[in-house]
Amino acid sequence: MRYVDEYRDAAAVRRVADAIRAAVTRPWRIMQVCGGQTHAIVRFGIDELLPREVELLHGPGCPVCVTPVELIHRAIAIAARPGVVLCSFGDMMRVPGSDRDLFAAKAAGADVRVVYRPLDALTVAASEPTRDVVFFAVGFETTAPATAMAVHEAARRRLANFSLLVSHVLVPPAIEAILGAPECRVDGFLAAGHVGAVMGGDQYVPLAARHRVPIVITGFEPLDLLEGIHRCVLQLEQGRAEVENQYARAVRASGNETARAMIERVFAVTPRTWRGIGPIPASGLRLREAYAAFDAELRFDVAGVGGREPDECRSGLVLQGRIKPPECPAFRVRCTPERPLGAAMVSSEGACAAYHRYRRSESAWRPTST
Amino acid sequence: MATDFDLSCPVPLAAHERIVLPHGGGGRLTRELLDKVFVPAFANPALDARHDSALLEAGGARLAFTTDAYVVHPRRFPGGDIGTLAVCGTVNDLAMAGARPLALSAAFVLEEGLAMDELRAVVASMRDAARACGVPLVAGDTKVVDRGKADGMFVTTSGVGIVPPGADVRPARVAPGDVALLSGDVGRHGIAVLSVRDGLAFDSPVESDCAPLAEPVAALLAGGVEVHCLRDATRGGVATVLNEMARDAGVAIEAEEATIPVSGGVAAACEILGLDPLYVACEGRMVAFVAAADAARALDILRGHEVSRGAAIIGAVAEPGAGGACGTVALRTRLGTRRLLDLLSGEQLPRIC
Questions:
Q1: For residue B74, is the peptide bond before it cis, meaning its omega torsion is within 30 degrees of 0?
Q2: How confident is the model at residue A363 (pLDDT cuts 50, 70, 90)?
Q3: Nearest C-alpha of chain B: how many angstroms from A240?
Q4: How many helices (H) and strands (E) does chain A have?
Q5: Is B268 on the interface with A (CB under 8 A)?
Q6: B206: left (phi over 0), alpha (psi -120 to 50) or beta
Q7: Cβ(A12)–Cβ(A223) below 8 Å
Q8: Closest chain B CA to residue A96
Q9: Count of domains forming chain B
Q10: Do A104 and B22 touch (CB under 8 A)?
Q11: Which parts of chain B register pLDDT below 70?
Q12: With an 8 Å Cβ cutoff, is A146 touching chain B?
């Protein structure tokens, strides 16, 4: 398949791995922010191709994982109301709240439907005018433009039976929070290519300068990831801290202006709590006042619905790169995809799910260095 | 709510009080349902063998017996319909026991309001598929339920077949050194259904691989290939079949990613949707475990039949102590690294981004 096979070419991958080996002189810890990249790394065994000096840390870039548990409960509570259709990305279906997930809510009678894009939920609203259609809007800057488009369209078409449960989060504040933590151990970042395609590379320039940290916007295929790591290692070895764009085939410095304008039109920046991590200032999106009529939390009055994180779940530490999933005592024992304690065990971008699915034994991973 | 848990710990979700959709996905939750509900209730040697068909002895003959329900939505998809599936699926379950299909039965649950033309079309598909397999449909039943009580039409077929003398095809025979052959490219059926179910239009439409496998199986056996086990890759795809075989036979399996055929259309659709083609459903593909000495000949025989022209050797059963744990499947990736090829909980879900 064009545009995929060439980025999975074994010989090319080995060449870049060799170049990393030749460049590295001392230990470096590089965090990939994006959960999609984490899955690619664990699935393809990219970490096994690296020299011992380069340690990969998994970051917070799994939107499903960081959606606060109370929002899952609010989604379930809204879905349980008569006349409601809750539309969700498939990835959210298995995410556990305190005691149930959306599959369980569906089995108990709620009308929960998996959609591929927010506009599909709008189509449901238009074709079933007597139902209240709620879209569970989860995701980073990557999916925010499509959500914004759906709200914009709903307003234009006066679809009063459509609303959003918004849980959009932003990448730069999360990187800032990780870098600002006293226990931060990250030397360099791979930033997610998809977010870069929307927001551009320039948004990372102040971060890189302020914290003296290299940030390489990187794609998702094995060759992309190794090239991103190579560029990051070269910067670290040379004492540089710049924003670089490995994923130039998709990312421009200014991003996608149309998509950014749509986000800006519909959403305002807001503080948000990240599941397992805690509150991060200015790290989320909320609907602007002009679109408040489409806010499902207001429409269904669920602000009082809460939920509690299982005490034993350590996915917050996993999401900050402070431990690897097998270092959690519950991993594979009391936490499995069938009996998850946290979202990271079931999300297709969760690090715990990646290790559970792809790593063949307890020895097939490298303990987090201290 | 159960109270036998520490109150600080939430009730585990898999202590399901109701059936959830992943129970039907063919993965771990389906297996849990079998292990905890069905097998304990009906335990007997034929069932406990966990074969696609039960093997029974009657009057000196060895019979294979199987049943399967079909609830596909939409009922018509590129490459077939629910009728084609209902015949091919059951014929294939018989073939996976090494059996020659003898006869089928069919039960229809029809929803009030179903168009008569659609029923006729499905019945015609079943007639054509049964003819192509050379198997008569000898018994049936029909029920009609109120509108809203069924999704248009559910079809259940059962089949009985005769196992030829000398054939001994069952999971327990899979042994270290056996070679695994796959009869063709994977994931076509799942993507074909998805493309019409969700209105996803792809540049190159993917047709279901739905087809009977009885002929190539008969040819393998007639050709004297030492066939140890056969299993068709349906829901859960080829990855699930390999895992089932590893568990049911108590062996470790090593597979080679680069050798597993995936068509360009399926690969592209999977990339877009975030699905792994190795877990996407097939309806006309099987994995054959054969003695290593017969592997090359088995490949030639399979490639001699239209339905298995794309056959390939995809892996082998590991020697004990060679690395993989019993009951697991290891995959050598295109990059030369190794990873677990695990059983999923339920169906794959399209990811967010």
A1: yes
A2: low
A3: 31
A4: 15, 11
A5: yes
A6: beta
A7: yes
A8: B13
A9: 2
A10: no
A11: 1-15, 198-199, 201, 203-204, 323, 350-353
A12: no
